[in-house]
Amino acid sequence: MALLPVSDALDRLLKISAPVTRSEMVGLHNAMGRVLANDVTALVTHPAFDNSAMDGYAGRHEDFADIGTELVVIGESAAGRGFSGHVGPGQVVRIFTGAPLPAGADTVLIQEDADKLPDGRIRTTFAPAQGRHIRPKGQDFAAGDVVLQVGDTLDAGRLTVAAAMNHPQLPVFMRPRVAILATGDELLPPGSMPGPDQIIASNTYGVAAIARDNGAEVIDLGIVRDNKAAIAAAVDQAKATGADVLVTLGGASVGDHDLVQSTLVESGMVLDFWQIAMRPGKPLMVGTLDGMTVIGLPGNPVSSLVCSLLFLEPLLRHLGSLQPRDRSGRAKTVTALPANDKRQDYVRARLTRGADDVLRAETFPRQDSSMMQVFAQSDCLIVRSPHAPAVEAGAVCDVMILR
């Protein structure tokens, strides 16, 4: 199978995967970042009554028309405790922000525009326009209005208005479920004492973190040995959990000990593609199996993480109806870069910002895909397109922002 360009691979991945349509009701405190599964209509009107936008005096506009008019204060209207009487000619009610506008009043004179007199009266020092400083009933929304729409991602503002609409919980799409399966006779979980031929499994944790950061629920299937029966049993477990995506780590190539791809095909997977024209991450595999999207990630940790950012992240945002995340940027390279070959290269680099406010990307001297420390210290990946010519230090290049 010919090496597939990165952009074509991503397009094909997204085309074989449909957004999750399952939904659930979630309380407001747990709804941040979730996506609405239905339109949400207001259950109440807001404001529920005409109220004051300022501290001051509520009265009739005609009584405020002339500066220097003296008016009698006949009561007080505060938030949660309105004035029950009626404002007549020559009268005002002391009013506070958010308090109901008394019957008979149509304008609020702010307190800074009134002189208090010693006998329960005020003298106006300004003539406000009619209706000034009044929030009319229903100014924000009325009961029955569609305020939030299906597909809206819930944030602080949308959760606030949902609460004001009197909704204690909201209908949201369920999170995509991602089952992660690590394979390899050499792998042990963190905290183990590795033997001379063993290593600590690390990829699961980075891939799971990327999945959760993009709205997914993660199911860790653990580590299975390089054994077809064990791999097939783990795949059955992923199907039983209702996973939308199965991510395998390692073993997706076609070597003598790479059993994941053949086992998945024997289990019914329709292989869409594998082997991408990229570095690191060439042996990426994508297919479908009984409604699951299958992504076989390379075993090398950096390859696994780069492929997760390039493919798993956009897939999960697509499945979860979230807006795509833009990691693109531009920076000047600190060192010269050699000409590239036929694969798209993702070069680990550290970002700094100069006195001229321009970002600069300094590549690490060693780029081996097993070097996790280098990736952990990288702020970006310099993106080198296939057959890109050599560039001198100071050239502007495309980067993929990591942090």
Describe this structure in words.
The chain is an alpha/beta fold. The chain is 20% helix and 30% strand. It contains 8 helices and 26 strands. The strands form 7 sheets. It has a 6-stranded mixed sheet with strand order 7-4-6-5-9-8. Strand 23 and strand 24 form a beta hairpin. Helix 4 (203-213) runs parallel beside helix 7 (301-319). The longest helix is centred in the last third of the chain and has 19 residues, at 301-319. The chain is elongated, with a radius of gyration of 32 Å. The mean pLDDT is 95.
Largest β-sheet summary:
6 strands, mixed
Largest beta sheet: strand ordering: 7-4-6-5-9-8
Q: Count helical runs.
A: 8
Shape: elongated
Topology, number of strands: 26
Are there runs of 5+ residues with pLDDT below 50, and where?
Answer: none
Q: What is the CA-atom radius of gyration, in angstroms? A: 32 Å
Helix content: 10-25%
> Which structural category do the helix and sheet elements fall into?
alpha/beta
- What is the overall pLDDT average? 95
Determine the N-to-C terminus distance. 34 Å
Strand content: 25-35%
Can you summarize this structure?
This protein is of the alpha/beta class and 403 residues long.
Primary descriptors:
403 residues; single chain; 8 helices; 30% strand; 6-stranded mixed beta sheet; 20% helix; alpha/beta; elongated
List the helices and strands and how they pair.
Layout: H1 6-15, E1 23-27, E2 40-41, E3 51-52, E4 56-59, H2 61-64, E5 70-77, E6 91-95, E7 107-110, E8 114-116, E9 121-124, E10 134-135, E11 146-148, H3 156-164, E12 169-173, E13 177-183, E14 187-188, E15 199-200, H4 203-213, E16 217-224, H5 228-240, E17 245-249, H6 260-266, E18 270-274, E19 278-279, E20 285-289, E21 292-297, H7 301-319, E22 328-333, E23 344-353, E24 359-363, H8 372-377, E25 380-384, E26 396-401
Parallel strand pairs: 5-6, 13-16, 13-17, 14-15, 17-21, 19-23, 22-24
Antiparallel strand pairs: 1-12, 2-11, 3-10, 4-6, 4-7, 5-9, 8-9, 18-20, 20-21, 22-26, 23-24, 23-25, 25-26
Helix pairs in contact: 1-7, 4-7
